[in-house]
Amino acid sequence: MKALVKEKAEPGLWLRDVPEPSIGPGDVLIKVLRTGICGTDLHIRSWDEWAQQSITAPLVLGHEFAGEVVETGRDVADIAVGDRVSGEGHLVCGKCRNCLAGRRHLCRATVGLGVGRDGAFAEYVALPASNVWVHRTPVDLDIAAIFDPFGNAVHTALSFPLVGEDVVITGAGPIGLMAAAVARHAGARKVLITDVSEERLELARKVGADLALNVTEATIAEGQRALGLREGFDVGLEMSGRPEAMRDMIANMTHGGRIAMLGLPPQEFPVDWSRIVTSMLTVKGIYGREMFETWYAMSVLLEGGLDLAPVITGRYAFHDFEAAFDAAADGRCGKVILDWTA
Asked: What's the EC number here (predicted)?
């Protein structure tokens, strides 16, 4: 089968013929139809410091996908050949305290699909049945392919109650855009989102942000005043991993405000802990999705009319992966999809 492979420990990706994966009694074999390009995939392609420390070549990368079940192991129940599915890309041990307590997203032995084992940028991918999400109601294939990052957005945005709250989101990348759409759909009063890309800020307006703010031209404090807010934001969603964004967010939260932080900083940075203490702020780290409560919430949100179509801005045949990766890396687009049927 064809697959996108990190073949050598150097920048680049290679489209290669690799063996089709085999499955065990508890696994499912899936024909991949669509995949989404993630920031993790960009790191692996560029072979940056993180990738050099985290990846062992050769590796089939990719963890955002949608496909069709073509084979199930003998012990698999409730998943059938022909089912349209997405996959949870965090594979957990099932034996640690958190797994046994049903908190699988907190497993310390998590292995990432397309990072710690061969992934979904291929014509077929094998997964444990316990990591497969069956779409019981129709979902557009492109949207189904981004359930993984959509889950990050939902997990972050719904960490705290949003109804009637004023929300600030720092970072209008694809996950930030989806979080803005979720916050608006979930009943937030005002949604402000920041970025430095006018193209992404325009996408933010399309998904329902009340104010999309270019922070090279205005501050969050100025945005707060433009929205008529007097006491600061109730909920902050940090999606950028930028130190200055986190510091500006903290400075503009109301007393008792709550911050969910998904953006992963490249290194340690200082924040105003005195402000966090005296303003009684809550800061919560977010990684991945709650299995499978977040997935249930995603499906229900889509059934309820949440529209993520504006977030998808590029679609390429898998053999045009170089152009697709270039588009995803330029920092001005939404989500880029690879079509494995083309």
From this structure: 1.1.1.103
- Among residues 43, 90, 105, 135, the one annotated as catalytic is 43
Annotated binding-site members for NAD(+): 175, 195, 200, 262-264, 286-287
**What is the H or E stretch that residue 259 is in?**
strand 253-261
Would you call 105 a catalytic residue per the annotation?
A: no
**311 pLDDT exceeds 90?**
yes
pLDDT in tens, 59-108: 999 999 999 999 999 999 999 999 999 999 999 999 999 999 999 999 99
For the annotated binding site, the residues are 38, 63-64, 93, 96, 99, 107, 175, 195, 200, 262-264, 286-287
pLDDT of residue 114: 98
Mean pLDDT of the chain: 97
Tens of pLDDT, residues 28-66: 999 999 999 999 999 999 999 999 999 999 999 999 999
Annotated binding site for Zn(2+): 38, 63-64, 93, 96, 99, 107
Domain housing 228: 152-285
Note whether 75 and 95 are same-domain residues: yes
Q: Does the annotation count 43 as an active-site position?
A: yes
Is residue 291, in this structure, part of any structural domain at all? no
* Complete DSSP assignment for 56-115: -SSEE---EEEEEEEEE-TT--S--TT-EEEE--EE--S-SHHHHTT-GGG-TT-EEBTT
Report yes or no on whether pTM surpasses 0.90.
Answer: yes
Residue with tokens 């949100």: 301
> Residue 128 domain-assigned?
yes
